[in-house]
Structures are given as C-alpha cells and as structure tokens.
Amino acid sequence: MAQAEQTLQEVLEAFDFGAPVVGAIRYGCGHINDTFVVHTQPENTCCRRFILQRMSAAAFKHPDQLMENIIGVTEYLGREVKSHGGDRSREAMEVIRPKNGATYYTDSQGGAWRLYPFVEGTVCRQTADTPELFAASGRAFGRFQRLLKDYPADTLYETIPHFHDTEDRLAKFKAAVQADKLGRAGDCRTEIDFVLAREKDCSVALDALRAGRLPLRVTHNDTKLNNVLMDAETGEGICIIDLDTVMPGLVLYDFGDSIRFGANHCAEDETDLSKVNLDVNLFAAYTAAFLEGTGDSLSNEEIEYLPWGAKLMTLECGMRFLTDHLEGDSYFHISREGQNLDRCRTQFKLVADMEEHWGELEAIVRKYLK
Length: 370
Ligand code: ADP
Ligand code: GN1
Ligand code: MG
Hints:
Layout: H1 3-6, H2 8-14, E1 21-26, E2 34-40, E3 48-54, H3 63-83, H4 88-91, E4 105-106, E5 112-117, E6 122-123, H5 131-147, H6 166-179, H7 189-196, H8 204-210, E7 217-219, E8 228-231, E9 237-240, E10 247-249, H9 251-262, H10 280-294, H11 300-304, H12 306-327, H13 339-356, H14 358-366
Antiparallel strand pairs: 1-2, 2-3, 3-5, 4-5, 6-8, 7-10, 8-9
The structure holds adenosine-5'-diphosphate (ADP), 2-acetamido-2-deoxy-1-O-phosphono-alpha-D-glucopyranose and magnesium ion (MG).
Magnesium ion (MG) is lined by residues 30, 226-227, 242.
C-alpha cells in the first residue's frame, strides 16, 4: 500500500466533514499531488464529497506559504465572483481548514494535507475533443487572469522558484545529462540533441521580460485542460483548480501551457508519435476564447508573443520530463517505466510541428492586435 493510503485514517480524523465518512479513494489524473475523493453520508441528504490532497513534498518545499497563497487567491476570487453575481461555491475554490485551525494538516510522517469541497455538477476532461470544449477552457483561463489583474502580486510566495524560468530549466537539464546518474542518457541522444539545438530559444521570453517589453502579471502557470472544471450541462469552464503555482509570471505561460496540453488529439504519454500532431484549428479556437476571457487587458506585444508561449512551454515541459527521466522519476508520478521519456517525446514532436506551422500561428494571433 502506498504511504499516502497508510496515513489516510489519521488524516480523515483531523478534519470535520460534518457527517460520517463512508470512503476515500484515489482520484484524478494529476502528476504531482496525491488526490483522494472523500464520500460522506449526511443524515437527511445525499452523499457529500470532498477533495483531500497530500501536497507533493518533492514539488513544494513550503506548504505553509503555498496554502497562504491559495487562501489569499481563493478568497479574492470568491469576492470577485460574488460581485459579478456568480455562484461562489462553484466558481472559486474554497479551503476547508483542519480541526486544529491551521491551513493544512501535517500527519505523523510529515505529509501535508489539505481539503476542498468537491465542485459538483462538473466534469474534468483529459483531451479537447471539440474546438468548443477547448474554447470553453480558454475563456475560463483568460477570465481567471483578468479577475486577478489587480491582485497584489508582491504578496504571493514563489512556491516553486524559477518555475517557468526556461534558462534555469535548461541549466538543470544539462546538469542531469552531465550527471547521468542512472546511465539513461545514451538512449536519449536524439532528445538531448533536440534541446541543444534550441538553446537560444530558451531566452526569448526572458529577454523580452528583461527588456521591459512584457509585463509580469499574476498567472496560474499550470493551465492544463484538466485543471479547469467544466459545467456538466453547459460545457462552460467554471472553476479553475490546481492553484499551487499561482505566482507572478508572463501571460504567455498560461496561454502556452494550455496549447501544449490541449491543442492536439492524444495523451501526453502517447507512444505512437504519428498520432501526435499540433491541431492549428484548436490553436485558433483557443486563441479567440482566451483573448475573449482576458478582455482588453493585454498589450499588443503580449499578443504577438503568444506563439512563443506555446513553443516555450512545450519545449520546457519536454525538458522537465526528460530531466526527471534521467534523474530517476522523482518529480512526476509515473505508472510505468519510461513514461517520462514518452511524455518528453510527445512534447518535442509538438515543438517540431509548431516550428513547421509557425507562420500560421503568427497570422492567427496577429488578427487580434489592436
Ligand atoms: P495535481 O497538482 O496533482 O494535478 P489537482 O489539484 O489538479 O492535482 O487535482 C487532481 C484532479 O482532482 C483534478 O484534475 C480534478 O480531476 C480533481 N479535482 C481537484 N480539485 C477538485 C475539486 N475541488 N472538485 C472536483 N474535482 C477536483
Ligand atoms: C504537472 O499538477 P499537474 O499534473 O496539473 C506540473 C506542470 C506540468 C504538468 C505536465 C506543479 O501539472 O508544471 O506542466 O504536470 N505541475 C507542477 O503534465 O510541476
Ligand atoms: Mg492538476
């Protein structure tokens, strides 16, 4: 039994669920945290569900700071949603504190656990089957960005330092290749050379930031399709989840990470690379919807850099998967040997596709310049 399961009983007792707990099982497809759905049975109503998560110790060194960020952001979003006449319980996450009043519970093994209400009447998608669905996620992430536009960014802790610092990711990747502690680098020569041929790209967004051409904003930084809950009836994206990496960043990070994950028709770990193709129509649908969500808050330069967001987030994520493969899969959860290398290969195939369609991607975003 995995360690998280072993301590589950202790953790369940640390929270007040308001009704007897009837079960807790693993849930979702996240790569980072250990997520459980908890079922409770109130006396006179139907089952109430909760999301209980053990935060990843490999990813997050300071759960106290992480939770302070999340409480600040969810309370702010809650007020924004209410002031726009929305339903706070469905459109913004809410942290439920443990009985001891802290923001999370530390178990006897040192694991850090938090609790959220389960947002009912929603679905979480793993692939963008239709342009409409993908567009709905884009509107939701764009709106998220706009709602947080006046959030005091300097109060946010950097939960993972250098998270989208692609130059730093490149340096860490090179160190992993150099150390080659498991002797895996020999089998990854093609992928290693793919990165080395694109070293200069890793500085494109950071150079623009340093030159003052792109502003820092409050960004989500992990805008995969499965980090937005869609209304089960209407298909609209209603609640943005997985707020662990809400930090100051560039808007192109949020745009790009969504494209990386969703603008194709395969799983992130697909092994048949002939099936892995960038869908330019999905790119176009997402662009229109994301920019509808952000309203008129973006500058022309931010819009012009959006294709770079797609390419950089995909290249960076591929590098991260490969680094983890070389280092022994200690960061991203895997369910089979070689899965991080497979994930890396899909990302690099998508980068190559983006390069091939670069002119089309630029033409799509150019339509939105003011
Ligand atoms: P990870 O960082 O590991 O990706 P997430 O916070 O994204 O963890 O949660 C994993 C999955 O759990 C999500 O993709 C989603 O399916 C589900 N989930 C998370 N929070 C909620 C919630 N409040 N209501 C319903 N489902 C949720
Ligand atoms: C992780 O937490 P999750 O599964 O939504 C990762 C992202 C990667 C993604 C790749 C905190 O996202 O940065 O892009 O996997 N999150 C963290 O699928 O590292
Ligand atoms: Mg997630």
